[in-house]
Amino acid sequence: MPKVSNCSLTKSVDLGSSPFIFSKTHNRFVYEGYCGNAVMMDDEGSFVTGCSTTCSNDSTGVTLYRNNKCSGIKCCETTIPHYLKSYGLNLTGLERQLGGDGACGSAFLVDQSAYDEGRFSGNSIPTSLLWTLGDLDYDQISCCNQAGPRLEVVEKHDMQKPNTFI
Fold first, then answer.
1. Which of 23, 25, 66, 131 is such that its CA lies 20 to 30 A from the CA of 1?
2. Number of other residues whose CB lies within 10 A of the CB of residue 144
3. Are residues 91 and 152 in the same domain?
């Protein structure tokens, strides 16, 4: 998935009509940067999740981690909602208020087992997806357990209730 590093750009990611959704269990939404924030929005521009880093005049430049998780100093992370299929990102650099350059850092969705701060210098980030089956796909199954996959009715963050099979 893409890494967003531009304050003036709202970047959107959409899995479209594919059978995939972003894994809530395996992914984290991460913002890396000093004194800023990142917001994840849905297709209508409504807030989904986000996080921000501290604006401290401490010049040590140390980023603190516990078990490979961001602490809020130059890096923050948060969970994502269930059944996320598309999102937009918006970054804000707040450092200008403290006399800095107002740089906005970068934000991305990342597989939590692959995350190591500063490791992803390129624009592509490893992300975990879940494969879902719809009603038509279920009818095509001719193998596996005789009981077959079980139907799950899920509720998305936008209150839709699609059927899926797992």
1. 66
2. 8
3. no
What predicted TM-score, i.e. pTM, was given to this entire model? 0.71
pLDDT tens readout for residues 66-125: 455 677 788 899 999 988 999 999 888 876 655 556 677 888 999 988 877 656 666 778
The per-residue b/e assignment along 76-110, b for 16 or more CB within 10 angstroms, e otherwise, is: bbeebbebbbebbbbbbbbbeeeeeeebbbbbbbb
Give the domain range for residue 148: 133-166
Together in a domain, 83 and 153: no
Burial class (CB in 10 A: 0-12, 13-18, 19+), 69: middle
List beta partners, residue 51. Answer: 38
Token pair 């970054």 is found at 91
| In a shared domain, residues 48 and 124 | yes
Do 165 and 138 belong together in one domain?
yes
- For 65, the enclosing helix (H) or strand (E) is strand 65-66
| DSSP annotation string for 74-118 | SEEEE---TTB-EEEEEEEE-GGGGTS-----EEEEEETTT--TT
